[in-house]
Every structure is written in structure tokens, then in C-alpha cells.
Design a protein that fits this description.
SRPBCC family protein, about 30% helix, Alpha-D-Glucose-1,6-Bisphosphate, Chain A, domain 4, 7-stranded antiparallel beta sheet, alpha+beta, single chain, START-like_dom_sf, 3 helices, ASHA1/2-like_C
């Protein structure tokens, strides 16, 4: 896994030993995404312009709602969405904050797929929570890339 960061941008990449089609399915199918990410997105669809919400299923974060607005879906190449980073305090109204942009890109790689996630826009997060959101998501994306790699590698090729 590779890592790159600035104060406004997090970038993580991972080589997944699975074909691009399988990685794309784990990423672009909302229900599959929820399984590896830790959110109940049953019955949801990722489509450009659509808002998708569902409860987080990760122990200790069940009070948090996964809430994204899908920006772009380019089959087997790119998917992006906007969300409120590290929005985990139920007492805080994040709705007036600008959302960061999360972009996933897929490229063929030897014996699999290179998946890269880039999250930008942290400089627009309110100063009082900017570094907490940046650090939390930096660590979170490293864990989530491991999760999707395991998920995609264990899926059958149906």
C-alpha cells in the first residue's frame, strides 16, 4: 500500500489480487460496498447525483449514518462521492459544512487491480475539527482499502 498526504488531500493505493471487474463490483454496488465498508446499504444504488444513506455497522459507530452524494460513476474506471469527513458526533449538525470529495480509481496491474482512493477538500472543513477529520480519515482509508482487498479477493467470479 502506498500513502500520500498534504493538509488538504489524502491518497492511498493498494494492489488487489482480483480482476478489475470484481473490484469494480465491490466498489460500485452499494450493498457490496456496505459489506466491506461497514454500513447497511441494502436496497441502495450508487448513481450519479444520488444521495445514499445507511447506518454504519462498525462496532462503536452504530450511531453514525453513512451519507454520501454520488458525483461520478465511470464503469470499471472511477467512482466519486462527496461526504462530511469524520462526521461521528451525533450532537453536531454537519449539514452546513462543505463535503470533501472522495474519488476511487481502478487500473489494471500485474495479477490484479490497482485501486487508489483520493479524498480532497479538508482545507474547507471547519478549523476546529479539520485535523481530527484529516487524521481519522487518513487512518480510516488505510483500513478500508485492506477491507475491500479482502472482500474482492474472496468473492467468486460468478
Amino acid at each position: 500500500m502506498t500513502t500520500e498526504s498534504s493538509t488538504d488531500r489524502i491518497e492511498r493505493s493498494i494492489h488487489i489480487k482480483a480482476p478489475r471487474t470484481r473490484v469494480w463490483g465491490a466498489l460500485s454496488n452499494a450493498e457490496a460496498y456496505g459489506k466491506w465498508f461497514g454500513a447497511n446499504l441494502s436496497g441502495k444504488t450508487f448513481a450519479a447525483g444520488q444521495r445514499v444513506q445507511g447506518p454504519i455497522t462498525i462496532k462503536g459507530f452504530e450511531h453514525v449514518v453513512f451519507d454520501v452524494v454520488i458525483e461520478r460513476v465511470e464503469p470499471e474506471t472511477l467512482m466519486s462521492y462527496r461526504w462530511h469527513p469524520h462526521a461521528i458526533d451525533p450532537a453536531v449538525d454537519y449539514s452546513q459544512e462543505e463535503r470533501t470529495l472522495v474519488t476511487f480509481t481502478l487500473k489494471d496491474a500485474p495479477e490484479g487491480t490497482l485501486l487508489t482512493v483520493v479524498e480532497t477538500g479538508f482545507d474547507k472543513v471547519p478549523p476546529g475539527r479539520r485535523m481530527q477529520a484529516f487524521r481519522g480519515n487518513g487512518n480510516g482509508w488505510s483500513q478500508q482499502l485492506d477491507n475491500i482487498a479482502r472482500y474482492a479477493a474472496n468473492q467468486s467470479t460468478n
